[in-house]
UniProtKB/TrEMBL annotation:
Coiled-coil segments on the chain, per record: none
Annotated source species: Neodrepanis coruscans (wattled asity)
Domain of life: Eukaryota
Protein name per UniProt: HPPR reductase
InterPro entries in the cross-refs: D-isomer_2-hydroxyacid_DH (IPR050223), D-isomer_2_OHA_DH_cat_dom (IPR006139)
GO MF terms held by the record: glyoxylate reductase (NADPH) activity; hydroxypyruvate reductase [NAD(P)H] activity; NAD binding
Oxidoreductase as UniProt keyword: yes
Native organism taxonomy: Eukaryota, Metazoa, Chordata, Craniata, Vertebrata
Domain D-isomer specific 2-hydroxyacid dehydrogenase catalytic, residue spans: 29-113
Length: 136
C-alpha cells in the first residue's frame, strides 16, 4: 500500500521530549501515514482530510473540541496508556469518534514491582544493602 493510501494518524511529534518514541513510530508507519501536529497546523486544509485517527502518547496531543471540529474524517482516538481520564469521552463520542486504550498493558510489570517492593520491605533489603555496602 502506498504512503498516500494509508490512513493518516495524527501524533504530536516523533522523538523529542513529548513525541512518540522512535521505535513505536516505526511500527505505526507500517499501518499509517504519520502526520505530526506541526505538519497538520502547517497545512490544516489538506491534512485534516487525511487524518482518520489520533494516537495519544503520554496525554498528547490534547484532544479538545476545536481539534475534533477540524478533523471531519476522524474515526478513532487510540490512547497508548491504561487510563482515559485525560479524555472527555462524552465530547469525543458526540463527534461519532471511538476511543481505545491498553487497559492491561502494564498489569504484569506493576504486579512484579509491587511484589518486589513488598519482599524488599519484609526482608529489610535496602537497610541490609546500606549496612553491608556503605556508600552504595
Amino acid at each position: 500500500m502506498a504512503k498516500e493510501e494509508l490512513p493518516g494518524v495524527l501524533v504530536l511529534d516523533v522523538g523529542g521530549t513529548h513525541g512518540v518514541l522512535e521505535n513505536l513510530a516505526v511500527l505505526l508507519k507500517k499501518h499509517f501515514h504519520l502526520i505530526t501536529m506541526k505538519e497538520f497546523l502547517g497545512n490544516k486544509e489538506e491534512m485534516s482530510k487525511r487524518i482518520q485517527s489520533i494516537f495519544v502518547f503520554e496525554c498528547r496531543p490534547v484532544i479538545d473540541q476545536g481539534l475534533l471540529e477540524s478533523l471531519p474524517n476522524l474515526k478513532v482516538i487510540g490512547n497508548s496508556g491504561v487510563g482515559v481520564d485525560h479524555l472527555d469521552l462524552r465530547m469525543i463520542s458526540s463527534f461519532g469518534v471511538k476511543v481505545t486504550n491498553t487497559p492491561h498493558a502494564v498489569a504484569d510489570p506493576t504486579a512484579d514491582i509491587g511484589m518486589a517492593l513488598m519482599l524488599a520491605s519484609a526482608r529489610r533489603l535496602v537497610e541490609g544493602n546500606v549496612f553491608y555496602f556503605p556508600g552504595s
